[in-house]
Amino acid sequence: MKKIINDPKNVVDEMVQGLVRSYPEYLERIPETGVVYRHDLKNIQGQVGIVSGGGSGHEPTHAGFVGDGMLSAAVCGEVFTSPTPDQIFEAIKKVDSGAGVFLVIKNYSGDVMNFEMAQDMAEMEDIKVKSIVVDDDIAVENSTYTQGRRGVAGTIFMHKVLGAAAAKGANLDELEQLAQKVLPNIKTIAVALSGATVPEVGKPGFTLGEDEIEYGVGIHGEPGYRREKLQPSKALVEELVGKLNQEFKFEKGDQVAVLVNGMGATPLMEQYIFMNDVLNKLADLGLEVKFTKVGSLMTSLEMAGISLTLFKVSDEIVENLNYATDTIAW
Amino acid sequence: MKKIINDPKNVVDEMVQGLVRSYPEYLERIPETGVVYRHDLKNIQGQVGIVSGGGSGHEPTHAGFVGDGMLSAAVCGEVFTSPTPDQIFEAIKKVDSGAGVFLVIKNYSGDVMNFEMAQDMAEMEDIKVKSIVVDDDIAVENSTYTQGRRGVAGTIFMHKVLGAAAAKGANLDELEQLAQKVLPNIKTIAVALSGATVPEVGKPGFTLGEDEIEYGVGIHGEPGYRREKLQPSKALVEELVGKLNQEFKFEKGDQVAVLVNGMGATPLMEQYIFMNDVLNKLADLGLEVKFTKVGSLMTSLEMAGISLTLFKVSDEIVENLNYATDTIAW
């Protein structure tokens, strides 16, 4: 294991320290927790707070999306491990200013359980809380840590859409309706070229041959659906867009937003080449691309690979995607 | 070689296509060249244009810094290969609106030669051009492709400072004075954990042992100054800040900007941990940190490692670093 760290036990604490010290104009930390919140919380008094979080190792998710027009706070668990209910509860209390708090949860059993417990704790203190569980990864049903489908990079679109709506003054019920409306329209699928190593474990979660790839791998190295020899970018796009289209059953003229997401070690050069092929393929399908984003946003430590998220959008949703946002990573 | 590409010969062309199609609100391309320029050039009529560029493989550098308050255009050469003089000349012509064009060149022999030829070509057409050659890498004197010191991640600080000054209305002479003033105050040093593979070459430029690192490696895999066993982050910081301090000879109270830059495959988690240790060390030295940035900004394809840039700053320079900027990657 070759990593730039000190003690593997302290990676998250030291990371959060480094993060908050690097960006004090964006983030503050609730001392001795993995909770980071907007430095300018006082400017959004009266708005619904948006909280997300989960295991660490997916940076810049989630903390990189805390800021104007997106998240109010993020809860950083240990690497690939759900944050505890009391940490999530601290985040909820911190960002509630009377209008309630909306939780964006990725669909992993630990996250769902702990966020729900935190929601219960908050409601006992009369804080109104609603939530959505994002399950955008179409690769497999059920997985190492998940009942149903996993929550992956499409969660960032959820952050963006809800963050914009909250900034525009949507109340808690309106945010819930919006989240439920867009949820089935966000779908993701990935391909991995190499695995990642959790610092405390010390060896890769999975390994692939010199010339081998795996379709459908999760962001914690959960198994995908097929291994084969490395293919050119265009062939990867055929496979992944094909799978997504089976789910969406797109019609000509459908509008989509596209996120090409690097898994950690994949150069931007490859992500742009892949996006170019994706846009060609979507044009072939007669889709209208209304929004595009490329970058390593929902990573899996140093995994190499790419995920592709398609989001079937209306003009109103595109407006939210383009809504002014000021965060470290959007 | 496991890369998400199609034909190794076409990686730059397909990358630039993907880039411009992903971000049409920022970038346009001069057809059949590697030149990308600001979509809103008409909004900066009368300002000095700022052009940078170089070999590809360092994304998001340079195209990711084209936009309001930074670069007017970027010239993307083949991977790790200088762009041709005629491409640079096209970029100069595109962004000149009468006030002249300032070139930011990284110190590699090919880049210096080709940018100077382009400058000559432009001057023959009565376009005023000035330039700066950035040589911030203190690791070694002379190198595979360089006389003197190499230009690396500190170049991004130069883009930012000059871009802000140009946006505020500085003329060509003022930009030249500013560039010459800040140049000796920007210094960088790196440590590599693994090498990178140029697509057309097909094998890594260098290899390191399972547990080995190399200090001072360049962004094209140029040799550094020492190999040893992997050290904890704190020890890497001791070494790199120590080397930088030998050059700067800091005094208590000196003000600095800090850039921790991932080389491509290094997770943000590690970059934040490293930054945390850097900030501790700079505090020990009595320095006042005025600006911080963390991210994979000047990469070397999928190289793993980090570079550390320190920039001795005045309040005026800090103002330029904080000046409003709208690009894909800053």
Structure description:
The structure is a homodimer of 330-residue chains. In chain A, 32% of the residues lie in helices and 23% in strands. Chain A has 330 residues and is of the alpha/beta class. In chain A, β10, α7 (268-284) and β11 (288-295) form a beta-alpha-beta unit. In chain A, α2 (85-95) packs across α3 (109-124) and α6 crosses α7. Chain A starts with 10 loop residues before the first helix and ends in an 8-residue tail after the last helix. At the A-B interface, α1, α6, α7 and β11 of A face α1, α6, α7 and β11 of B.
Supply the key terms.
6-stranded mixed β-sheet; alpha/beta; 12 strands; Rossmann fold; homodimer; Hypothetical Protein Tm841, Chain: A,domain 3; 330 residues
- Please outline the major beta sheet of chain A: 6 strands, mixed
Principal-axes shape call of chain A:
globular
Q: Any idea of the CATH topology of the largest domain in chain A? A: Rossmann fold
Radius of gyration of chain A: 19 Å
Keywords (chains A, B): Kinase, Transferase
EC number (chains A, B): 2.7.1.121, 2.7.1.-
Protein name (chains A, B): Dihydroxyacetone kinase subunit DhaK
GO cellular component, one term (chains A, B): cytosol
